[in-house]
Amino acid sequence: MTMRSRRRVALACILNACQAWSGSTPISYYTTYIFENSVGLSYHTSLLLSGILQVWFLIASFGTWYTIEKLGRRISFMITAVGMTCCTAVLAAMIAIDTKTSGIVGSAMIFLYQAFYTWGFMGGIWVYGPEIMPLTHRAKGEGLATACLWLSAFVVTEIVPEAITNIGWRVYIIFACFNLAFVPFVYFFLPETAGLTLESIDLCFMDRSTTPVKKANEMRKQLRSGVAAVLEHEIEAGKEKDVVHVECSAKD
Fold first, then answer.
1. What angle do CA 226, 229, 232 make, to 5 degrees?
2. CA dist 15 to 8, 51, 73, 138, 189, Å?
3. Does this entry carry the keyword Plastid (predicted)?
4. What is the rounded CA–CA span in Å between residue 197 and residue 249?
5. Cβ-based neighbours of 8, under 8 Å, separated by 6 or more
6. Which residue from 74, 133, 228, 242 lies 20 to 30 Å from 83 (Cα-Cα)?
7. Cα 174 vs. chain centroid, distance in angstroms?
């Protein structure tokens, strides 16, 4: 595997880990526990809200079909990361205040958090990872990325109950910091793939003269204008020059 291929696999692995460290896993697994022990609701109310939250999660997931294509992968990831940051920060503040009103606001933040999560990182990683993987390593690379996701999810799931017991509302500040850190990661390292063919995405990572993010933006502009994109790149296997001509047709 070449250095460029390893970079693409690494990006997919990190992105998948971001999903777990966003706080989505413990919120999904420990919803009743969080409502009862963090927000301060009764057991029966927590149980009821947990069921409603899962229904809301399903309803909100339909919005992913719109955001991932209309907004694009990068914008969806960044907007929802900011949204999750705000939700977890406000949730932490409401838990720290610890009043009946703050409990209601905190509960609302959990519902809003789940919406942001499903509009971005829930489905987005399963689309984006395979798109940026090199063809020859797509199956194994995505398998490794999935392993990173579930390993991270396991670690977070084991930590959170003890963290809530020992540091209380501060655990949500930690998740807010993680979510905020995802924004520069996406902005600087993840090229936009919406509207590009898999061959075009390959070219984004092959061009040595620029970054994948800039190259993807350039190719998307060419795609919208109907101009053919010509990229001269060095083939890794044979170490010889080749010219790849990608015909780009304007969208209807």
1. 175
2. 11, 29, 12, 15, 10
3. no
4. 11
5. 132, 133, 134, 141, 205
6. 133
7. 17
31-85 tens-digit pLDDT: 888 888 878 888 888 889 989 998 998 899 888 888 888 888 999 999 999 999 9
The tokens of 200 are what? 């075009």
Q: Across-strand partners of 81?
A: none
CB-facing half-sphere around the CA of 74: CA atoms within 13 A: 18
Q: Which amino acid is at 153?
A: A
- The C-alpha torsion from 26 through 170 and 167 to 19, rounded to 10°, is 20
pTM of the model: 0.83
Give CA torsion, residues 192, 125, 144, 162, to 10 deg: 130
Burial of 226 (0-12, 13-18, 19+ CB in 10 A): exposed
Angle at Cα 194 formed by Cα 151 and Cα 87, nearest 5°? 55
Length in residues, the chain? 252
